[in-house]
Structure formats: structure tokens, C-alpha cells
Amino acid sequence: PAVMAALRAFGAKGTCWFPRGPGARLPARFCSRVPAGAGGPESEVQLTCARQRDGIRDIVLSNPRKRNALSLAMLKSLQKDILHEAESKDLKVIVISAEGPVFSSGHDLKELTSEQGQGYHAEVFQTCSEVMMLIQNHPVPVIAMVNGLATAAGCQLVASCDIAVASDKASFATPGVNVGLFCSTPGVALGRAVPRKVALEMLFTGEPISAQEALLHGLVSRVVPEAQLQEETRRIATKIASLSRPVLALGKAAFYRQLPQDLKTAYCLTSQTMVDNLALEDGQEGIGAFLKKRRPVWSH
Prior knowledge:
Blueprint: H1 2-10, E1 30-34, E2 45-53, E3 56-61, H2 72-83, E4 93-98, E5 102-104, H3 118-137, E6 142-146, E7 149-151, H4 153-160, E8 163-167, E9 171-173, H5 184-191, H6 196-205, E10 209-210, H7 211-217, E11 222-224, H8 229-241, H9 245-258, H10 263-279, H11 281-291
Parallel strand pairs: 3-4, 4-6, 5-7, 6-8, 7-9, 8-11
Antiparallel strand pairs: 1-2, 2-3, 9-10
């Protein structure tokens, strides 16, 4: 309940997903658009595309002409797609990917000039921070599927996801220092995903790391050949979608809650989580199914 209250606090109003009944398919492709003046000069620019099937919601950054820059409008569009029906039992996992050769180039630097003013700049970084925290606070796992370059806030987005699958063509960087803007906010997610010295070398030099280096340091979960990226990501998402949503939601929340705690407090928190898990309908269903040597039937 606390997690869902936090999600609602971000504000899910104004989403423009098509309504559907349980089990119904979304249209093959649905795109969020932004009117002129809503964080960018373009009128009706396609920003993100989303579709959902079999419990898996695919969200695609769809502005390759601008290297999928995380403009204010793009961030708000992504936020809406993540928040849409977050409490629905039909949603089991979210996959974030991108069109084109660049996953995301980070913030749109045209929005960060002095002409925009500090108030606008503050809104950009606040919205970006909300999106990154939303991913961690969301009840279902969020997977990044990365094929290409992810820089600055784009790298931050990958680091913020629960799981990241990258192709061998992917690379990652926090190059803000090269244009006089230190990647301080990307450093929050990066510094929690990789060792400190690795994060600081990336932040201080702006130099990219390869997909294999990202795997070595823990920025991504696995690296596969480009031709296998979709298949491998789908395999992981399908496995997650086959499991109990309440159990996963409880476990994900507990995992992140215990991370900053001392050892004793972490075990205290997670011990209570195990007790709470056993009190769930699906907790007893899973154990009962195992003991009776049958497949479990999850509540959702």
C-alpha cells in the first residue's frame, strides 16, 4: 500500500493509453505524443511507444532523430507510460528499449541553456529524478534492453532499472564533464550500480565503457550478440511474467529497503518480509504446490 501511495503521488493523471479489459491486447503500437510548448518546440512529436501483452509492457523511446534525448517532454511521456495502471494485476514486468542506434543521449542540451532559466532547469532535473525513483519504487521489475549508446541521463536510466540486458554493440558513458556539466544526477544511479572508482573514472573522464566492461562492473546484467538481444530480453521478461506479482512486488520493495541498512537491521526487515510473504495467498499456494508436486496457480 505504501508503494502504491508513493506511485500515485507522482500523479498518473493525463495518460492516454487505450482502455482495455483483463487479458485484452493493446493496439499493436501506441505512441505518446506531446503538443507544442510541452517541453519542446515540436508539434505532435512522437516520443514514446507502448504496448502490453501477456503481462509484459514494452515502452520504446521513439525519437531517434534526436538520439532519444531525455527532454522534459520525453521524461513526462516515459513517466506516464510507467505509471499507467501500475496497480493492475495484468502488469507483471516492464521493458524499456529505444529506436535507432542510440539508446539515449541524455538530457537535451538545448533545454539547459541560460535562456531557459533556473526554474525550467530545476523542473528538468526534478522530473528526471522522479522517473528514476519511480522505476525503483514500481511494484513490478523494470528491464532495460540496450542496443547502442547510452550516455549521461541515458546511462542513468539503464543504471536505475532492476535488470539491464545489453547487446555487444552497446556502450555507456557519463560525458557531461566534456561540455562543462558534471553528470551529478547520473552519478547517483551509476554510483549505486558500479564500484566507486569505476563510477568516478567514468564521471571524471567522460570516456565510454564497452558492454563487456559494463557487465564486468555490474552496470548491466548480461551481454548478448545483437541478433539475440530481443530474444534474450523476452525470455527473461516472460519468466518474470509467469510468476506471482504480489510475491515479486513484496520482494522487490524489501530488497531496496534493506540495501542501505546495517546487517542486523537488514535481516530484521527481511525476516519480517519472509513472514509477510508466507501470509500471502500465493506464498501458501507455491509451497503447497511444491509439496504436492504440481504446478502452482497464482492469484495474479
